[in-house]
Amino acid sequence: MVGVRCGMTFDSQDDTLDFVRFLNKNFPKDPEILYLTVHVFSDLSIRASQTLLFTNPASPQVHQLNAEAMETQGKWPEAASEYREVLAKNPNQQGIHYRLARLILSQPKTETTNEDARKELESELKINPDNPGAEYILGEMARQAEQWPEAIEHFGNSAKGDAGFADAWIGLGRSLLSAGKIDEAVGPLERAEKLQPPNPVPHYYLAIAYRRVGRHADANREVALHRQTSEQARQTKQELQLGLLGPQSVDSKEVPNPF
Length: 259
Hints:
The two termini are 43 Å apart. Among the domains are: 74-129, no CATH class; 151-259, Serine Threonine Protein Phosphatase 5, Tetratricopeptide repeat. The protein contains 13 helices and no strands. It is mainly α.
């Protein structure tokens, strides 16, 4: 730990990272080591951003960094302006239209919100056809509008682009269920369950799918798993509130079931 502090003091990034790797390999769950690691990477991030700003102040990367900082502060219009500066300098920069779509959807909804976001997402897919995040949001927008064929297509593309994206498999399964394609819905929901066993959501929809195809024993099992994982999620949320905000912030009666 002293070696880490010396490395940071003398701005020796290689030495610092060597010490951090050693500490995390040998003491992977030590709270003091984890706390130190958080601060090391935070400080290294700040130093790198300062170097970027001083050496390339007009670069698209500086505008993107500013946009990301403003986005975390909830300054949506300012962040959008910075992202558009990135596109002005590099119209084919991947990920920027996707971020703009997220900003649009984060702000208070207007009559044009969905259409504006859709345009940004479609522009993103023209630049990067394999963006699973853009496909997922388009799928969710279609699902909420009960446009099942479009939702199935977009969720399917999202899951294809990122086979480990559990939410995409859930969205695909839910949309297939709503479209009456019960047999087809089982596979995606089982895939989501394997990816996220503690998540109550796939258990819930699998129970529905199994029940509708006549697999009653499997449906009963999923109902039990849904109850179990929902309770675990509630307890985890309560423990996080307790750890972050203190005991006075947690009232078990006020912690809602997340599903």
